[in-house]
Fold each of these.
Amino acid sequence: MIRRLFLVSFFAFSASWARAAERPNIVFILADDLGWSDTTLFGQTAFYKTPNVGRLAQRGMTFPRAYAASPLCSPTRSSILTGLNPARTGITAPNCHLPQVVLEAAPGKTAAAGMKAVGPTVVTRLDTKYHTLAAALKDAGYATGHFGKWHLGPEPYSPLQHGFDVDVPHWAGPGPAGSFVAPWKFPDFDPATPDEHIEDRMAREAVAFIEKHRDEPFFLNYWMFSVHAPFDAKKALIDEYRDRVNPADAQRSPTYAAMVESMDDAVGTLIDALDRLGLSEKTIIVFTSDNGGNMYNEIDGTTPTSNRPLRGGKATMFEGGVRVPWIVCWPGITVQGSRNDALVQTCDFYPTFLDILDLPAAPGQAFDGVSIVPALKGGTLKREAIFTYFPHNPPVPDWIPPSVSVHSGDWKLIRIFHGGENGAHRWKLYNLRDDIGETRDFAAERPERVRELDALIATFLAETKAVVPVPNPNFNPAAYHPEREGKPARKESAKPGAAPKPRPRARKPSPKAS
């Protein structure tokens, strides 16, 4: 009897191991602050060069109507790893590098006298109670590696506590430490050459991980530092682009263009490695961005980029803040060079990978995202709506007060919490099929559509148990200036999103990729 049980267990283990060995590798490439118009995918740039992103598009499927779960980075990153909307996790702002540990959102208490709503407090760490995508893949026999930016909390909330075997350079900050080009200030992670670019280095580290695990399934989570602030790049590249600047082009920063090229070079390094090792046909590759392009900082006398024809950018609820480039290469399944107009969001990745790999969710686990496998196979994706929850109002161009939006079909409704009269909400309604730039607000003309879509928002907020903004008890009508809505703060105000100088602190040595 004991021998029989042993044989049953042995063969079950062998079958499980064999299934794991047959499963495809996953390479997940996440750019930081790369806008929808910052690549050549949609014909919106004549200045930036992204041939390797173009190579990926030729190998897989591009989604023109793809969205980050938030217009800022940490919330979107949390959505990828949990399959949950930031409204549910409470990570609604990029505060995960701050020293305060907050694991549950709570109603806010104060706001400036001129603001009608008070946003909630923000969760500052990705709680280890979540069974992440990395943990699920590790349980299924995958080697798991995180390379690059994290921004979901330092130890004990680092990638090493969320299912990753290795984490390089083991950095919890909001951007690269000091600069993109060495000398940088990553603890325990020195440059190999005096002028090494961090993206070149990260790509080489990632390739070493691929080489080490070439004979077993692996999950490479390559979350780039590019193209987030601080704005610097290889000097020779900047000089090259400076000679190509067209002053009439809204995209005219040579520094940013050089940053985009280095980002694209790293994508090419990964593609070339997979090709060289004979792994391309059994590797799923994803490429996307965590939010829209930065339109509020300044470099080379202009904004870093332009998201035209989209309105707004990073930290706004308009399309420029949340619509992102998105490519999936699934060899043998996605039609090469194809496009799909399905409405997709970063919450969808986790359930999609479980579906692809025929893996169960953890006991009691549910997702806000859905599997997009039907779309990847060339079909249609049946879903009613996607939601973006952003209960904040950073002072950037095209900002609006704390709000939530719904995309459903061709329509997009933004609810501005308590932004109307006597504490009532206020709405903006756009038809994106005819007006991708969100220039015409239909809210006053289509009240029935507003009610229909706002009912979806109400259900979403209830189901996610979102901690929502409340009326400002200190609101003073005399201090209210609606004409300032959508306009950036004065020059002397702090510019949100710029990477603060890192604070030295003790860290464990970073695990090596090889």
Amino acid sequence: MRKVIPFNDGWLFAKPGQEPAPVSLPHTWNAIDGQDGGDDYWRGTAVYTKRFEKPGYVRGERVFLSFEGAAMTTEVELNGQTVCRHEGGYSTFRADITDHLKDKNELTVRTDNSRNDRVYPQMADFTFYGGLYRGVKLIIVPEVHFELVEDGTPGIRVATQIEGTSASVTVETWQNADVPVTITVNGEQKEAISENGRAKAVFTIENAHLWNGLADPFLYTARAQLASGDTVSTRFGIRTFAVDPEKGFFLNGQSYPLRGVCRHQDRAVLGNALTEEQFREDMDIIRELGANTLRLAHYQHAQEFYDLCDENGLIVWAEIPYISNHMPGGRANTISQMRELVTQCRNHPSIVCWGLSNEITMGGDMTDDMLENHRLLNDLCHRLDPTRPTTMAHLGNLDTASPLIGIADLGSYNLYFGWYYGETRQTGEFLDKYHAEHPDRAMGMSEYGADANTQFHSAKPERGDYTEEYQCLYHEQLLRCIEERPYLWATHVWNLFDFAADARNEGGRKGVNQKGLVTMDRRIRKDAFYVYKSAWSREPFVHLCGRRYAERTEDETEIKVYSNLEEVTLFVDGRRIGTLSGNRIFTWHVPITGTHTVTAKADTVSDTMVISHVKKANKAYVYERRNVTNWFDPNETDPDCFSIKDALGDLLAHPEAAAILKEAIPRLRTGEVPKMVAGRPLDGYLQRMGDDISAQQAKDLNAALQKIRRVSR
């Protein structure tokens, strides 16, 4: 009989030079500094220790330690003996500790999230938390048991194939001996004989109940048992899906446009050390929004969250943290992380594709080694799981003819027209041009978004002001862009929640990317959240925008309402202003003279806010403008001289400025800079170089450029 024992209490934790202090798991040491950013953010090796008595087990049984997630590189010692080492911060790994156990034991776990050149991620726009941030378990199994160690396997795998109204279900198991295995599916039991540690049985389910997305996420269970008493089980779903380059995504033979959001796993104050209750709260917000797809970025998420996706009918893009910068020494790590992702997550019916990489060309030129790495990953995914396609998230400036795009089965672009560069209308122009040039390729949008700080507001929003109002305008336009292009196989807003990005210092917040539709603490749904709720949710609602824009200087102000109902009536101080019929967005312009109570009603739902007319503008509503990608926060600049706030292309066009840049940044010495990059501010380019340039180097470069007057061009 298998026993699973939680092992999360009674730990001591210490950073170098500190006295050990008691902690319970899950735990990360970057819960605060990873969100504040700057010099306080600490990456290194810290130590967890735990003393425990030998667990109760009988002779012949084996005892395993199971780590659900430890970041990023982990070394485990029991009573002074190394029992395992693992590279990768997001997957399950286990170790057999039976032969190292004593009556009284000391467990030492060293977790390391410091910089290196082989373990991903090393360069990305999110915080690399350290620690035992998911749970640890003891697993006690009989001497003959299902496999536990190889790639963190669950020991059981299910594949389904629909044949008319019936389904063929193949169940495979891994065990440490060639013994009979009893496998049960849908009440039917079969015995399979293991060969070379593998057993397989095939079942037929007549009139199969399909897993049908949000409408009906029905789950079956497969169970396997050994004569020793060891048992494993897994839930699975029966469904088909396909992607058409012209018509988009299909689920069970029906058109099912994938429209949703991306999710990072961290929270304010807690970092990435979350509980199942917090996972469920995230899922409740996703269901409220009405999204039918999630891109779980940029790494393997907790099994409990994939379970929630299965149960709630979300279509999931799962990926490894092969991101931003290809490291020649990191190939083995990409392979091992992909093996673990597919092995551990294959049974989840919610997952429909494996993501090979994200914006991998950001860190430098494409190389033969980079291409080969992707081909190897692509082939590995197809060998481990022939039932799912592969995909990639491409940097917005990647040439549409790049050989990188053709490696994966599906493609998707991260496009930020209207925020980092250009205008929102260019998103559609880019997509249409790509689709016309490559009509046989399925393409989507894996990221798009604009930052908003709930403190900042404007009656005249514009790009880069970090207001909720601009974020709303941006997403209104992008939603229309998406709905006009049914060929997009999947689109994912970046991001559902604000998340920690230690190197950022912009938009009035340090260490946080504010593109979320919901704040990092999950307390505030930004107004833009309701843009998508009006399009995707069937739950009747009405939402007044601008409640945090409470003090307004304009004599006549715009009142905007989002609703998924067709008719909305507005009241100010109880007086009916008017009723509008429309689609999702309803706006009135009303005079304001003092403090007013504004109410919007639609059918049986309503929303109310209070706004006031003031003579003096509230300075707290206005962000002191900087470029939106300014992570390095240089000193005040002389506008008559060049600075790192200028466009990269403009600086390279000036001989003196170009000489300074090429001396400081070797990669600019050769090759033409792509137009999309050339149009961006230099500080954004420096930010995306990550560890290649420090904050001090950026300030020194800015100081050098400040000595060149613009009129000398």
Amino acid sequence: MKKFFGVLHYVKGYWRFAIWNIIFNILSVLFSLFSFAMLIPFLKILFSDNPAELEGIVRSGEPVFGFSTDKIVATINYFLAKGAVDYGKINVLFWICIFVIVTIFLKNLFRYFAMFFLAPIRNGVIRDLRNKLFDKTLNLPLSYYSEERKGDIMSRMTADVQEIEWSIMQSLEMIFREPLTIAIYMILMLVVSAKLTIIALVLLPVTALLIGSIGKSLKRSASSGKAKMGILLSMMEETLGGLRIIKGFNAEKNVSGKFQKENQLYTNISIKMYRKVDLASPLSEFLGVSVLVVILFLGGEMVLSNKSMDGALLIFYLVMFYQLLTPAKSFTTAYYSVQKGLASSERIDSILNAEIKIQDASDPKSISKFEKEIEYRNVSFAYREAELGWVLKNINLKIEKGKTIALVGQSGSGKTTLADMLPRFYDPTEGEILIDGTVIKDAKIKDVRSLMGIVTQESILFNDTVYNNIAFGIENVTEQQVIEAAKIANAHEFISQMPEAYQTNIGDRGSKLSGGQRQRISIARAVLKNPPVLILDEATSALDTESERLVQDALNKLMKNRTSLVIAHRLSTIQHADEIIVMQKGEIIERGTHTTLLAQNGTYRKLNDMQSFV
């Protein structure tokens, strides 16, 4: 149950509600003792056909009250007999019925109040867990997501969190109330008959061990089920993103077959899991009744053979024990549910406990502006430290303020990785990157990224309005500023023709726009941010000729008077760069201007000739 109490760590902010929950649970349990069934042994006095028996109890006088079983029973019997003699049996029965109704009403009222104060705990804990999980996903480095399925992460943030809400949080009431109920009944049973209670305490752990072993098996099945659900969500996410290719290659049957196979495996696991869950209640009831029968036999022997126990007390004891079975069964059901939920808890913990390697230093420096140069100094990088082969090897590069530096080379040569290290999406495995002489690892991440604007090959837009996409991440922006940024990006004209202009929703990932339109909105976003440093990652490579011309014109306006790091496949777009860096297998093999590199007749010249030929 260690993991369970780990989840309960979030309850610490809700102790005020928890205390009230505990108080009302105690009151509810105490009033549950006064049920009609608990009065059965005493009603035999009331329904006695022998008037002399009742008069004899009254004549013997009121017993001295004490906390022993005999004295409590004698006191109750005296007042029942006296009431029957003085006021008649019907009147006494009437007041007993009123007493039972009032006590049951109070029991359920206090139980409701206990649940009333549990509701903000249960839902508040889940809210905090969702918030913490979402914040962690925002702070984890990009390298974490390159190793994980997006669908599996989404499964953990949705299905697994919901599983905790249903299986653990909804079990809080039973987890805390039922042990309390069991403890109070056990104390009362010890008072009535210590011998029978000790026998029960010996037998009950045997049943608990059997139930616990099934619970562990359930947890394993639940873990497998959650993993399979993650695979299913990943397949759905990939299918929705690749429908054009699936339909174009007539691969619907193939994709459907793979999904159905995984879905059947998930179904088989779920069937096993629910069969184990459904076993909880009947198994606990059977084992409980078995123990009750043993107690009945041993108690009956004490009454019939050695007369060491009164028959009425045995009935009273059996009623209490039977009353004990209900909370015991509920606790077993809750335990099974918790085991199922702990599998989800472990999957969520794998995200919450994931190491955030890229974070601020203990005493970070502030960088408010960019004044001189950016320097890559002996930078090498591998995605995993133990991985053989470097993505980047011994890179030395200076980018002076106001200059445009272009990165060219084959796919996989390390261009994008080199650019991604500047805003600290990745940190160098060896070497360091400096801005105006300050190592960026020693600076505040927020300050470093505030200096930069990024335009990527794939336009990253959100399912929101044009206005909000352009103003994304920037506070206190006026509509006029957004319009001016759109004009610079050559986007104002087509935005104005949209149904609601800047307030038009552009759909999921900007699906209502063309590629060129999406890219120009991305550029407008960078223009509005007005950063001193620009990172352009193949911003025109996926566009048609006309869109490329419009986007390139917007980029030229954006790059004016700024420091730019440009990744390009089309060499025609970077011929006027101040320096062109040619990369191959993670190393810089050539560098210079367009003219000097052509004169060298090296790799750059070959790339240029191939594109000219095309």
